[in-house]
Design brief:
Elements: E1 3-5, H1 7-15, H2 20-26, E2 29-32, H3 33-40, H4 45-50, E3 55-58, H5 63-69, H6 75-86, E4 91-93, H7 97-105, E5 110-111, H8 113-122, H9 130-139, H10 146-156
Parallel strand pairs: 1-4, 2-3, 4-5
Helix pairs in contact: 2-8, 3-6, 5-6
């Protein structure tokens, strides 16, 4: 399985102490160079990222496509989308709405941080999603529409 991740899911999961869920669910995860650079700008994150032997850094070859996407998206999102296309990724892990919409528009399968938490619960890796979503909101300043919050809890059976 090939998984490419954008910045937000990795940062969010680091901030709530759940980064290992990506590894437990997907095995190896690839992040583009631009995402790695964005992650390293947050104090303390580079050391966490560098310690993960399942997290790999790669770069998109089609820089022209990346530049085109950067008109509407940030560099990490743009490169993550192009890298996911190039690697024929099974999933792109991405949270931001603009990036999600663009990825879906060009045929990528996506999952976000909340989807990762749902999968983790379904696999028995975590007992509940609600406390982790609440932590995302409080610690990572993660924005969740109230209707989506309720929908995720309903899917999780909480």
């Amino acid at each position: 399985m090939v998984i490419v991740s954008d910045t937000s899911p990795v940062t969010s999961l680091i901030q709530i102490g759940q980064l290992e869920l990506l590894n437990a669910i997907f095995g190896q995860v690839v992040i583009p160079t631009a995402v790695y650079e964005e992650l390293c700008r947050v104090p303390g994150q580079q050391i966490v990222i560098d310690q993960q032997n399942w997290l790999f850094i790669d770069h998109a070859q089609d820089s022209k496509h990346v530049k085109t996407l950067e008109i509407d998206l940030d560099p990490g999102e743009a490169e993550a989308i192009v890298l996911a296309l190039e690697l024929k990724a099974d999933y792109l892990v991405i949270d931001e709405l603009k990036g999600r919409n663009k990825a879906e528009e060009i045929g990528l399968k996506i999952i976000g941080s909340l989807g990762v938490l749902l999968q983790a619960k379904q696999l028995g890796l975590i007992p509940a999603v609600k406390p982790l979503i609440d932590n995302l909101i409080q610690k990572a300043e993660f924005r969740v529409h109230p209707a989506l919050y309720q929908q995720v809890l309903k899917i999780a059976g909480e």
